[in-house]
Amino acid sequence: MQRHGSRCRHEKEHEIAMEHVKGKEAGQIMLYALSTCVWCKKTRALLDELGVAYDYEYVDLLQGAARTKAIAAVRQSNPRSSFPTLIAGDRVIIGFKEDEIREACA
Q1: Cβ neighbours around 70 below 10 Å, total
Q2: Mean pLDDT, to the nearest integer, of 61-70?
Q3: How many Å apart are CA 2 and CA 11, to the nearest integer?
Q4: On the chain, which terminus has fewer CB atoms closer than 10 Å, C or N?
Q5: Contacts (Cβ under 8 Å, ≥6 apart) of 78
Q6: pLDDT score recorded for residue 2
Q7: Does residue 12 contact residue 65 with C-beta atoms inside 8 Å?
């Protein structure tokens, strides 16, 4: 019984995945990324440089239902499920496209 409880606590740690970065409001911005992806890191750095508020998830660090839910959310906007996937309002930007990101966050 205790072993099962430990496993549940461990899984819950990985379900708390979405992080919020405070900044100026530029609409709803969500970044789906991989923790090991250079382009994902560049996208986060650009969002930080722009000073906008955004949410992000490192999909590769998720487990169980949280991972399934995040992958489904990515596929809804990006059927190829490539990273980074940035959703800014009704706009989807796949990959690190600096000019498009700047425009979407203006």
Answers
A1: 19
A2: 93
A3: 14
A4: N
A5: 85, 92, 94
A6: 39
A7: no
Q: Give 24-76 as a 3 state SS string.
A: ECCCCEEEEECCCCHHHHHHHHHHHHHCECEEEEEHHHCCHHHHHHHHHHHHH
CB crowding 22-60: b at 16 or more within 10 Å, else e: eeeebeebbbbbbeebeebeebbebbeebebbbebbbbe
Q: What percentage of the chain reaches a pLDDT higher than 90?
A: 77
CATH 3.40.30.10 fits 2-104, yes or no: yes
What are the extents of the domains in the chain?
A: 2-104
**Enclosing H/E stretch for 13:** helix 2-15
